[in-house]
Design a protein that fits this description.
- The complex is a heterodimer of chains A (about 100) and B (about 170).
- Chain A has about 100 residues and is mostly helical.
- Chain A has one domain: Helix Hairpins, CATH 1.10.287.3510.
- Helix content of chain A is about 75%, strand content about 0%.
- Chain A has helices at about 5-25, 30-55, 60-90.
- In chain A, helix 1 packs antiparallel against helix 2 (about 30-55) and helix 2 runs antiparallel to helix 3 (about 60-90).
- The N and C termini of chain A lie far apart (about 60 Å).
- The mean pLDDT of chain A is about 90.
- Chain B is an all-alpha fold.
- The longest helix of chain B has 28 residues, at about 85-115.
- Classes of the chains: A mainly alpha (about 100), B mainly alpha (about 170).
- At the A-B interface, helix 1, helix 2 and helix 3 of A face helix 1, helix 2, helix 3, helix 4 and helix 5 of B.
């Protein structure tokens, strides 16, 4: 069987559900971030796969580049917030962080 | 034949290391599994003739995001710390999470496999996509390009401001 669009879509579906499980099951906020990265990567794979099998439509590539830029910005801000939370609580368990201000 | 082999190799790398990210008990192992996931994704992009995106993936994800995440892991926790939900509530949450993600996987796989996707019959081959991406970014997508540039500038200034010690 020749490698077609569905092969890539299956990989992306598995990656997405693994990311969902990572977000739901972890209590450390950095590991939640890693699950988010998996989900963003699976979306990117879908963009690129559809772009390829629509006759190399370049718009999928541009959308992927924007997603990568936004992921970089998101991780930078999220890690800054996590470092602040760590200075205050001395742990980063999302279950026990329940105050926005003192 | 060789193409099929390379595709399956990269697919297995991506899925197995993503499982490593999600199921590993130690945070550092998760971070290093994420490295292999990102490299495997770059390989899949190359197979889909997206060379520029593959290189961007390696430079931004592996060179930037992963380094930030590893710094976050090292600054905020004991490297050998165990991070799995414990207790009764944790077990319930874990079970519900597993059921949710399995349902999501089944729905997605059913959709992807049952729909007859409209793919083009002929395969377009270009030597490199960089020229077309640059052309697109500076004509049709000029405004999103500048908005993204300003957004990432603001995000980095804000991150530096937030993370600074009081």
């Amino acid at each position: 069987m020749e490698i077609g669009l569905t092969h890539y879509l299956v990989v992306s579906a598995l990656l997405f559900s693994l990311g969902v499980f990572g977000i739901v099951s972890r209590k450390n906020s950095i590991l939640v971030l890693m699950g988010l990265e998996l989900i963003l990567n699976s979306a990117n794979l879908n963009f690129i796969a559809f772009s390829k099998f629509k006759g190399l439509n370049i718009e999928g590539h541009i959308a992927t580049l924007f997603v990568i830029v936004l992921a970089a910005a998101e991780v930078a801000v999220a890690l800054a917030i996590i470092l602040n939370i760590y200075q205050h609580y001395h742990h980063i368990d999302v279950d026990e962080i329940n105050k926005l201000k003192e | 034949m060789l193409f099929d082999f390379v595709f399956y190799m990269f697919a297995v790398i991506v899925i197995v290391s993503a499982m490593g990210v999600v199921f590993s008990k130690k945070m550092m192992y998760s971070a290093f599994s994420l490295l292999f996931t990102f490299f495997g994704m770059a390989g899949l992009y190359v197979l889909l003739s997206a060379d520029f995106v593959a290189v961007t993936q390696i430079m931004v994800y592996v060179g930037g995001i992963l380094v930030l995440i590893v710094f976050g892991v090292m600054l905020t926790s004991k490297i050998t710390g165990v991070d799995i939900k414990t207790g009764t509530i944790g077990k319930i949450q874990l079970t519900v999470g597993a059921i949710t993600s399995v349902i999501v996987a089944i729905i997605l796989l059913y959709t992807y496999l049952s729909v007859e996707w409209m793919t083009s019959q002929f395969q377009v081959e270009v030597p490199t996509t960089t020229h077309f991406i640059g052309f697109g970014l500076f004509t049709e997508y000029l405004l999103p390009f500048f908005v993204a540039a300003i957004l990432i500038l603001i995000a980095f200034i804000g991150a530096a401001k937030i993370a600074r010690r009081k």
